[in-house]
Amino acid sequence: MWLQQTLFLSAKPRGFHLITDEVLAQIRELTSIRVGLLHLLLQHTSASLTLNENCDPSVRLDMERHFLRSVPDSASYEHDYEGGDDMPAHIKSSLLGASLTLPVKHGQPELGRWQGIWLGEHRIYGGSRKIIATLQGE
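Predicted structure:
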């Protein structure tokens, strides 16, 4: 079985957001998969998807602080006509990536105990986001 659908994420402020429940709630057919793969592609160049800590929110705050220091808005970028936060957002997106492939077993992604799906929102006002979810399995 193959299924592909567009998922919609509500607008979030800049930072890292645990979106596991928001994503999985939109994939109704996931519960019918005994074994398979779930591929998620974020259709934006100024945000990212990653797996990380799903319990302690301070990890997300520390990640955001790290990236603000490592890729500052105040650097001199050639690409700046979409705002000072746009080019740094593109860099962060490329560093972290825009897709995830997750194994599925008995209707659930096989995440580690402390793993969750994160959206890295790298724009100050990024707006709503779309993810293409492709589910393959039996």
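Summary: The first helix runs from residue 20 to 24.
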